[in-house]
Design a protein that fits this description.
The structure is a single chain. The chain is of the alpha+beta class. The protein has 6 helices and 15 strands. The chain has a 6-stranded antiparallel beta sheet, with helices on both faces. The chain has a 5-stranded mixed beta sheet with strand order 11-14-12-13-15, with helices on both faces. Strand 12 and strand 13 form a beta hairpin. The termini are far apart.
Length: about 325
């Protein structure tokens, strides 16, 4: 049995479904007023016209949650905000008072779409949300659901020196379909995370989204805790291929890179994160030039992404680099 879930620091269970390989049929298309469910005459969501291979999990129940689950989601969210170092100087950091979790979009559940959405949220002196901007390249359907929900949240006003102030912060929400992580799955959807593991998962989503913003549109940055298990497995396989060719040995925590591959899995560029000299950057590029294509990357239905990016070594701690020096590969 699979379940769909949302998570900030831990998961929020919304609905259950079992898996089948039956294709989406026009008579079983999602319905409702959600813009992500709009369909054309061919029965495919507008966002999915380029992805006609969508596979359909059969829904066993609709989105449901009770007051206890909603309170847990709120507590997890506030716990994340309390960990922001820059809020330590405030009299009172932002704390959410009302935050109904986003509904897992019906079409996304039909097509098995999972992922994370990082957003920059700004609240005013009344605790109302005045702006929500997605960061990086999240799946557009999940991003719509997350932004639409957060726009209506209410916060306790923040204050400094006794005066209410506007604040802004970055927060992630993870959409996860598995009730328990499969081998190699991201930690994002688990209920039993330690505080340290939850913080790592949260920071990876935020830093990954910021890296996507710097790399450009159409690129999904993958980490070991990403909410897209197929992409995680793919990144691990490419790094293993690099190691098997004897070219991965030069990469370590003091010389890590970000590798960008296209839809066929062929490296198109490399970003030297820690390299301090031109010679080291050239050596890094040479190490991956002969890697060749690793096969088609796992594409999610309705997604705007046609490249994957990930760190090498893949399991190295993710730190947001001050400068990304991207080198195109021949």
């Amino acid at each position: 049995m699979k379940t769909s879930a949302l998570s900030f620091v831990a998961s929020f269970i919304l609905a259950g479904c079992t898996t089948t390989t039956a294709p989406v049929r026009p008579d079983e298309k999602p319905t409702g007023t959600d813009p992500t469910n709009i369909v054309r005459a061919n029965g495919l969501p507008i966002e999915a016209e380029r992805r006609a291979t969508c596979r359909q999990p059969v829904l066993t129940r609709q989105n449901r949650y009770d007051a206890r689950e909603e309170a847990r989601f709120r507590d997890d969210f506030n716990s994340g905000l309390e960990q922001e170092p820059r809020f330590k100087r405030l009299d009172s950091p932002p704390q959410v008072l009302s935050n109904p979790p986003p509904s897992y979009p019906t079409w996304a559940r039909y097509c098995g779409v999972e992922g994370s959405v990082a957003m920059r949220v700004r609240t005013n002196t009344d605790g109302r949300v005045v702006s929500v901007d997605r960061i990086g390249n999240p799946h557009p359907i999940l991003a719509h659901a997350a932004v639409s929900a957060v726009t209506n949240w209410r916060f306790r006003p923040s204050s400094m020196s006794g005066q209410p102030i506007d604040v802004s912060f970055i927060m992630p929400i993870n959409f996860v379909l598995e009730s328990a992580p499969a081998p190699g799955r991201a930690e994002a959807g688990r209920r039993d995370l330690t505080a340290d593991a939850a913080l790592i998962s949260r920071n990876n989503v935020i830093h990954g989204a910021m890296i996507e913003s710097k790399l450009g549109r159409g690129i999904r940055f993958v980490t070991p805790t990403s909410s897209e298990p197929a992409a995680v497995r793919y990144a691990k396989a490419v790094v293993a291929k690099l190691d098997a060719a004897g070219k991965g040995a030069i990469f370590n925590e003091s010389n890590s890179v970000i590798l960008v591959v296209n839809a066929l899995g062929r490296p198109t560029s490399i970003v030297s994160v820690d390299a301090t000299t031109d010679l080291q950057r050239r050596q890094n590029a040479l190490a991956v030039q002969g890697l060749g294509a690793s096969g088609p990357i796992p594409l999610l239905a309705g997604d705007d992404v046609d490249h994957l990016a990930f760190a090498v070594p893949f399991d190295s701690p993710l730190i947001m680099p001050a400068v990304l020096e991207q080198t195109a590969l021949p």
